[in-house]
Amino acid sequence: MQRDSAYHQGTVWSWLLGPYIDAIMKINEADGLNQARQIINRFKYHLSEGCIGSISEIFDGDAPHHPRGCIAQAWGVAELLRVMKEYELYGSADCGRSDRDCEDTITGMKDLS
What is this structure's pTM? Predict the structure, then answer.
């Protein structure tokens, strides 16, 4: 029971990164793209910890924002990929693999358009 209530006491849900970037893009058209890229660049370290190439379900609300919950949350991954595709932020994040693998991933995302 304590763990369930902790989910709503300062926990950060990874899937909210997508709507957060949407809001930044709508509110600040002039610098929104740059801000979105900075957010993704600050987050890319996580793609190489826990479940490599995935995103944890939740994070601590306070720095250093340790990952918690399940190590691979589809909602969080989907939202990050969605905003990267929607706002063409492909080159913003290191996918944690070789440059060639990253190029293939980026090309695949562009082909989804």
Answer: 0.72
